[in-house]
Predict the structure.
Amino acid sequence: MKDISFLAKWAKKFWKKVPDQVVRLSIPILILIIGFIVMRNLLVPSDFGKYGHFRAAAIDELVSQEIQYSEHEMCFECHDDVVKAKNMSYHRGVECEVCHGPAAAHIEDPEGNQLPAPRERGYCPLCHEYLPSRPTGFPQIVSESHNPFRACVSCHDAHDPKPPTVPKECEACHAEIARTKALSHHVYISCIRCHKTPKEHNIRPRAHRPEKPSTREFCGECHDEKAPSAKGVPRVNMETHGERYVCWQCHYPHLPEAH
Amino acid sequence: MEEIAHQLAPILEQITGYIYPNEIELHWRILIVVYPYITGLVAGAFILASLVKVFNVREVQPTYRLSLLTALAFLIVAPLPLLAHIGHPEKSLEIFLTPNFSSAMAMFGFIYAWYLMAVLLLEIWFDYRRDLIIWAKNEKGLMKWIHRIFTLFSTDTSERAVRFDKRSIKAITIVGIPSAFLLHGYVGFIFGSVKANPWWSSVLMPIVFLFSAIVSGIALVLLIYMVVTLVRGKEINMACLDKLAGYLFYTMIIDFSLEALDFIHRLYESEESIEILSQLISGRLFVSLIVIQLLLGMILPLAGLSSVKLFRVPAELRRHIYFVSALLVQVGIFTTRWNVVIGGQLFSKSFRGLTAYKMSLGGVEGLLVSLGFLILPFIVLYILVKIFPPWQEAKQP
């Protein structure tokens, strides 16, 4: 009992020695510290920092999300021929679901959940539209002038895409024309259809020049009103349309869309 | 989309060479220029105040309380440009609640809070405590209560208590100087540690920032002291003013030498970035760096201040030279911040091209808001001065 009273006396003496300022300042400081601790306990989620600088429950939230995508291998189970062809092609790095969309539901119920295949023109240019920052050699088009109004899949097989080929013997010298033509409506017309080229041209190009179409009727074979060509080909009345000129005097056949 | 294109069009015309698409528009704009400028003034003003207490420089005593209040006023405003720039001010609390020790930016809150509460507020409280008690005794109404609350209802004006106040102030100031260095050195560190940016990445950056901060802080207190004394119709204490100008002169020489050292070091190192940086200095930053920062903000005031030291200049002319020099220093230090923050984003990381910065007038990131943030500390200071008069004659004997 005596000891306790001694301690109390000592504490009282010590308390008297503590400057008034310290006592007063300690109140707001204590309020700040307690406030901070209370706020931390109230506002910080209890699982914060368990694995790192984030809520541990955030992982469970992510895991609990519904799975939308399946795996590449799953497509192979049924569509082995298509997957095999694609894996040999330029598109081998492109997953099936990049074009066909999330396939988890389709795998659960293949008949009930059919996957779409993009047929509209806007889709392929997401990767293949001309952009200066795309790597050199990556196939690119300017969709405004590259067969407008025609779906990409009507010419290209997305599972085995092949860039249009130009005869190597022409491309070596006429690469610029070949590249221009590759972007144009005339992409599938071979060079020699219009230019009758003697064999010697390959050896002595200046001595044996290829021909150019010399008659209006040549273009008329496709572009005349009565020509038996495909539906989308633009047509003119050959008798009234620029009658005194050969077509290529006004139109540029390697890029006819150009003005 | 069209609006963005409309905004970018005038910048696109000014782009030279090759730059990456995400470098066209600057991300840190005028508000981030204002932030280090204001923080620098805080650190500078505090270091000036600590000269009185730690190094016993009697002459600058008249500006002691004024510099403390100036530091506080500017410190209160310092984080506001950041909050305005980042947005979502309500989330700012999170950096305290879940501290991220590996992020220098996230540590700002703690450095700021430490400086505000453990240094500045404590020092002001201890310095004013006795006066506040005496003022409160002779006052009535609202002011009496404001003063009483700020003393935390303390009434002890005994000699022992005052002695404890003085000892505490000295201790706080000694802790305060490294804290002030930390506060502004930290701001320099944020820039200096960006290793991908050769205009910023420099070990000297925190030190250069610190000394330019001290320069701007001393110049600011000098300006405020002159204007306030003029407005109050009192006599300017020339001994104090001469001493302030002397400190300004010496810190400017250190600041100038450090910046010159940094410049020569870069020039001698001649890393691969030197070409684009020299294009930057001779082109985009020529006016703000060479003309305003170097000539107007450094060489001209240095010439003015050294002429006072070299020749016998009458008091009236001295006052004019000090005033103009301090004003030029403010402009110079502001452009220093501008050249660091804006300059560091004008060149491409490809080192092959330059973009441009077009400041808007309105909007959060505009000129008007920034001017508001630059004026706001003076309004805060006015209120602080009304509550805590820093004048010598208000001090109770």
Summary: The mean pLDDT of chain A is 85. Residues 100 and 117 of chain A are 5 Å apart (CA to CA).
